[in-house]
Design a protein that fits this description.
alpha/beta; 13 strands; binds pyridoxal-5'-phosphate
């Protein structure tokens, strides 16, 4: 017996674990200090009432013989797929191109099972690290490509051939989003190279800029080359409930859905019925309006944080189509600035180096925290004379 070498080599750099370890030590030595987290990517708003009611109803459904649901919909229930098409992809996709699942974290890695094990995979450095580590755990061949501040951290297609490209927009951790123009270049690259774009669009509900498409399929040719991932986690507060979906358009290949269905029937017994009822409710038009107000609240926090950091003399990216801000340190390393914020201001931020070597010298903050905590963090930053 031999273990998977890639798991042995992988750094146990569970970042959030390292961050929380440092916070725990600091808090135990400074018991009276109130620490505010601008670090976590988790949401702070609870699930809204109409969605809770739909999930309560779903629990009741399970209690009677007539409405009980057990095993069944490997790719998601029709009621949810229908709601997804109507709300998100009307005129663009059909139900048999949608797969409902239990979280995009798993989906963005497990999709690699669809492709040859020797496929050349491209990931940007700075990245959502799950792409790199998830691919490595499956023994895949991954290359990282630096992205630079002079390009506003937008990756451009390389000369070299790749089979699979991960793109994340709105981006975690940088908080910027790819415009139609930016994405068109990648779609042309993918067509030319017969490559696939894995388009992580889990922050789609935060998009406000006119030139950023809500879905990549708004762009001509995207249906031939892109698989798009979406999640209910951040806008419907489903980080604990778990429900997501992704689209595999038939235009990519006439056999692609058959292949993926064969794989999925063997690897997945379908997403939770209760979660799917809640997810379907989140797509109803009145509920969508309430959720939009929640997202507007997060974005208002992002705007306040952005101006605060700018006034304190930092260079800041993101926060307009995303809850994340990406900030350049003032000549400190990522971990030095983390320590500084924790010890001097009692604020948790995330060191940029966690998102790949290119993130050294930067840090990420999140506007998903409670508004009162964000206000207090802003006061502390404004009052600090050592920043
Ligand atoms: N993709 C990105 C870029 C994310 O930031 C996250 C979560 O933070 C995910 C995927 C995973 O989301 P989910 O909760 O649907 O697993």
């Amino acid at each position: 017996m031999k273990f998977n070498d890639n798991l042995i080599d992988m750094e146990k750099e569970d970042i959030f674990e390292k961050v929380s370890e440092k916070v725990k030590v600091f808090q135990s030595n400074n018991k009276d200090v109130k620490i505010i987290s601008l670090g976590v990517g988790d949401v702070s708003k609870p699930i809204i009432k109409p969605i809770i009611n739909a999930m309560h109803q779903a629990v009741d459904d399970l209690s009677s013989e007539e409405s009980f649901r057990g095993y069944g919909a490997y790719f998601g229930y029709d009621f949810l797929k229908e709601a997804i098409i109507k709300s998100e992809y009307e005129g663009l996709l059909s139900q048999d191109e949608i797969y409902v699942s239990a979280g995009s974290k798993t989906d963005t890695t497990s999709i690699l099972e669809l492709f040859d094990i020797n496929s050349k995979i491209l990931i940007t450095d700075i990245m959502y690290p799950v792409y790199r580590d998830g691919a490595k755990a499956l023994n895949r061949n991954v290359r990282v490509m630096p992205i630079a501040s002079k390009d506003k951290f937008i990756a451009s297609p390389p000369e070299e051939h790749f089979d699979i490209v991960y793109l994340c927009s709105p981006n975690n951790p940088i908080g910027i989003a790819y415009t139609k123009n930016d994405l068109t270049k990648w779609i042309n690259y993918a067509k030319e190279h017969k490559a696939i774009i894995l388009y992580d669009n889990v922050y789609s509900e935060f998009i406000r800029s006119q030139d950023v498409p809500k879905t990549i399929y708004e762009i001509e040719g995207a249906k031939e080359v892109a698989i798009e991932f979406r999640s209910f986690s951040k806008h419907a507060s489903f980080t604990g409930v778990r429900c997501s979906y992704y689209a595999i358009p038939k235009e990519i290949d006439e056999n692609i859905n058959l292949l993926w269905q064969k794989r999925t029937i063997n690897r997945f017994n379908g997403a939770d019925y209760i979660a799917q009822r809640g997810a379907a409710e989140s797509l109803a038009s009145d509920t969508k309006k309430m959720l939009k107000a929640n997202i507007d609240g997060y974005l208002a926090n992002a705007k306040l944080l952005k101006s605060t950091f700018k006034e304190a003399g930092f260079t800041v990216w993101g926060g307009e189509d995303s809850p994340f801000l990406w900030i350049k340190t003032k000549d400190q390393s990522s971990w030095e600035v983390f320590d500084y914020f924790l010890k001097e201001l009692n604020i948790i931020i995330i060191p940029g180096v966690i998102f790949g070597p290119g993130g050294e010298g930067y840090f990420r903050i999140s506007a998903l925290a409670k508004t009162e905590n964000i206000s207090e963090a802003i006061n502390r930053i404004n009052q600090s004379n050592s920043l």
